[in-house]
Amino acid sequence: MTLINPDFAEEIERFGQNTALECFNCGTCAAICPLIYDHFPRKMIRYIQIGAKDRILENAQELWRCLHCGLCTQTCPREADPGEVILGLKRYVVANWRRS
Ligand code: SF4
Ligand code: SF4
Q: Packing angle between helix 82-99 and helix 42-50, nearest 10 degrees?
C-alpha cells in the first residue's frame, strides 16, 4: 500500500533543489528520455508530489540508470528540472540506506 505524505516534498529539499511541485505531468520528459520505459522520470516526480516515498525506495535501482544527459531538464516546459530532481532522489535513497 502506498502511503500519501504531502510533506515529503519538503523532506527531500535538503538533498537538493526540489522543483518537483512545478511539474504538471505533461510527459515531455518521459518522451525524450533515452531510458524511455515505464514513464521515467515523470513517475518519480509524481511520487514526490504525492509523497510516495515507499514507491521511490522500492524502485530506487531505476534512478541509477539515469545518464544525467540533461535532455529532460532542457525540454521541460515548466522548469521542473527533472534531471536535478533525480540527482536529489539518489542522495535521498543513499541516506535512507545508511539509516537502515
Ligand atoms: S516535462 Fe516537466 S512538466 Fe512535463 S512531466 Fe516532465 S517534469 Fe513534469
Ligand atoms: S537526465 Fe536522466 S532522466 Fe533526464 S533525460 Fe537524461 S537519462 Fe532521462
A: 60
* Ligand 2 pocket member 71 (CB < 6 A): yes
- pTM, two decimals, is 0.91
Per residue in 59-85, pLDDT (tens digit) is: 999 999 999 999 999 999 999 999 999
Residue 19: CB atoms within 10 Å = 20
85 C-alpha vs ligand 1 centroid, how far in Å? 11
As a whole number of angstroms, the distance between CA 26 and CA 48 comes to 16
What number is the average pLDDT over the span 21-40?
92
